[in-house]
From TrEMBL:
<dbReference type="InterPro" id="IPR004604">
    <property type="entry name" value="DNA_recomb/repair_RecN"/>
</dbReference>
<keyword id="KW-0547">Nucleotide-binding</keyword>
<keyword id="KW-0227">DNA damage</keyword>
<keyword id="KW-0067">ATP-binding</keyword>
<keyword id="KW-0175">Coiled coil</keyword>
<feature type="coiled-coil region">
    <location>
        <begin position="165"/>
        <end position="219"/>
    </location>
</feature>
<protein>
    <recommendedName>
        <fullName>DNA repair protein RecN</fullName>
    </recommendedName>
</protein>
<dbReference type="InterPro" id="IPR027417">
    <property type="entry name" value="P-loop_NTPase"/>
</dbReference>
<keyword id="KW-0234">DNA repair</keyword>
<dbReference type="InterPro" id="IPR003395">
    <property type="entry name" value="RecF/RecN/SMC_N"/>
</dbReference>
<dbReference type="Pfam" id="PF02463">
    <property type="entry name" value="SMC_N"/>
</dbReference>
<feature type="domain" description="RecF/RecN/SMC N-terminal">
    <location>
        <begin position="1"/>
        <end position="510"/>
    </location>
</feature>
<comment type="similarity">
    <text>Belongs to the RecN family.</text>
</comment>
<comment type="function">
    <text>May be involved in recombinational repair of damaged DNA.</text>
</comment>
Length: 553
């Protein structure tokens, strides 16, 4: 509910403040008094484009603030998702600076125009004359039928199944694409794998072969060096091991005469033992080092094969070749498994499709069952509002053979015939502004309770009607206002007479400038204003009496 609207420095409005009723609010005033200016200012906080040309005083900012009382789940969710303060009262403010730049705020937090539009659509339903968008949109048409058909629970179930179906369908498409890719690459991958499989490389084989080949290539020189070392240590004319033992023995008999000699003798003996071990180890190594041409040839063949594979795959180690082999094996195995996985997902898609179609057909049945009663009620209301020859038809098409979409199987289109010609066409193409306005009022009056519509604002939807038709429009608005706030700008006294709060827009001189102002009328002032709407500036007694009857005083 819009409880308060504050406007400053907008067009010819210096400063006004309006406190709206939570029921039916009517705004009247002479042509040119500024009613459309008030709506223009309101449109700013609903997210319309801002223009610096609207500034009354070019050196001051323009402010428009709307105070709303609302606490629906969708609004609470929006505030949380956008990190906005949750208050009992939502304040939307729009500012236009002197340079033309505008800023938007929700509860004093800066927001984008897109965020402003999103929130305002939950708070206000604004219908202006010649505004064909909402009624012509398929979403609104579907929502209207669904609201009356009571499909909410079925639609929630369907939405869950449809989401699963879309996910499964995407997974199936990805698998089939993957299979195509596998098929294109399978032969090449199999060739590469077989090549590595035939090579039969073992862990670190190339690195170890390279080291062994270097050893074998130098085996004769290594044996000669080892033989010489062993000879000098153990087999020479004066072997180092034997000579060192003799030196130790020569000092042994004098150890009792000098305290340092026992330690020297022990170190000489330890060195003799170490050299003896070195001689044994050298001999052992020498026995194992042999020149083996056949082994060298085998190692050269393995290295040639290994280096060829490394170069081919731009790799550097045996481990990388073995890892590549594992990857190729995984891809080949995946190619074998993908058909099985495709079959499983196809079965899932079939099951979900059947479930979705079943729910969609139940939804469709409810919609189609509601179509004729909906048409009859709307057409009866159209007669009441002065369109006796107009007809609306809810065209609902779709079957289980058609493609499922987000809301089931049906395509819903409102068709309109203004003159009983039986030539129905989409309402967005054939309805005039005045016809569309009254048609929208009739439809919204039927679905308002079911759709939980927000504050409803009608800007001069009474164009082209008068008398009984205008009275019926007022009756419909009054009924709408029993469960939600309605704000309407009107020129019709029959509609103004139904108001719970009547606001009068007028111009007044302020120095040398003309300014627009607005005030709420008392009961007596309402009678006078409506009498003037009936009989002119100097209303007759009959007009006054008629006005009192309309106001109910």
């Amino acid at each position: 509910m819009l409880s308060r609207l504050y406007i400053q420095n907008y067009a010819i409005i210096d400063e006004i403040e309006i406190h709206f009723s939570n029921k039916l609010n009517i705004i009247t005033g002479e042509t040119g008094a500024g009613k459309s200016i008030v709506m223009g200012a309101l449109s700013l906080i609903l997210g319309e484009r801002a223009d610096s040309n609207v500034l009354l005083q070019k050196d001051k900012k323009c402010y428009v603030e709307g105070y709303f009382k609302a606490s629906t789940k969708s609004i609470t969710r929006f505030l949380k998702e956008n990190d906005l303060d949750e208050e009992e009262q939502i304040i939307i403010r729009r500012e236009i600076a002197v340079n033309g730049k505008s800023r938007a705020f929700i509860n004093d937090t800066p927001v984008t125009v897109s965020q402003l539009q999103q929130l305002s659509s939950m708070l206000v339903d604004l219908h202006q004359q010649f505004d064909t968008l909402a009624l012509g949109e398929s979403d609104f048409q579907r929502e209207a039928i669904d609201a009356l058909a009571g499909t909410e629970d079925l639609l929630k179930k369907y939405a869950g199944v449809y989401t699963q179906l879309r996910q499964a369908g995407k997974k199936l498409a990805d698998l089939k694409s993957q299979k195509d890719s596998f098929n294109k690459e399978a032969d090449y991958h199999r060739f590469l794998y077989n090549e590595l499989e035939e090579a039969n490389l073992t862990e670190n084989e190339l690195e170890e072969a390279d080291a062994e080949l270097k050893l074998l290539s130098n085996s004769e020189n290594i044996k000669a060096a080892l033989t010489k070392v062993f000879y000098e240590l153990s087999d020479g004319e004066q072997p180092l091991v034997q000579h060192l033992k003799q030196i130790a023995n020569s000092l042994q008999s004098y150890t009792d005469y000098h305290p340092s000699l026992p330690a020297i003798v022990q170190r000489l003996l330890a060195a003799q033992i170490e050299l003896s071990d070195l001689a044994d180890e050298t001999e052992s190594i020498n026995d194992k080092v042999n020149h083996d041409p056949q082994r060298m040839e085998l190692l050269n063949e393995r290295l040639t094969l290994g280096y060829k594979l490394l170069k081919k795959h731009s790799l550097h180690t045996t481990a990388e070749l073995l890892s590549l082999k594992d990857d190729l094996e995984t891809k080949l195995q995946a190619a074998l498994n993908v058909d099985e996985e495709i079959a499983l997902v196809e079965a899932e898609v079939t099951q979900l499709t059947a479930k979705a179609v079943d729910l969609a057909e139940k939804i469709s049945a409810k919609r189609k069952a509601q179509a004729k009663p909906f048409e009859d009620k709307v057409n009866n209301l159209l007669t009441q509002v002065g369109m006796p020859n107009a007809r609306l038809k809810a065209d609902i098409t779709g079957s289980s053979e058609d493609a499922l979409h987000e809301y089931g199987l049906d395509n819903i289109e409102f068709l309109f015939d203004a003159n009983k010609s039986n030539r129905f066409a989409p309402v967005r193409k054939v309805a005039s502004g005045g016809e569309l306005s009254r048609l929208m009022l009739c439809i919204k009056s039927l679905v308002a309770a079911s759709m939980d519509l927000p504050t409803m604002i009608f800007d001069e939807i009474d164009t082209g009607i008068s008398g009984e038709a205008a009275k019926q429009v007022g009756v419909i608005m009054k009924e709408l206002a029993t469960s939600r706030q309605v704000i309407s700008i009107t020129h019709q006294p029959q509609i103004a007479g139904k108001a719970d709060a009547h606001f009068f827009v007028y111009k007044q001189m302020a120095g040398e400038r003309v300014k627009t102002n607005i005030r709420q009328l008392s009961k007596d002032e309402r009678v006078t204003a409506i009498a003037k709407m009936l009989g002119g500036e100097q209303p007759s007694a009959a007009a006054l009496e008629n006005a009192r009857e309309m106001v109910g005083v």
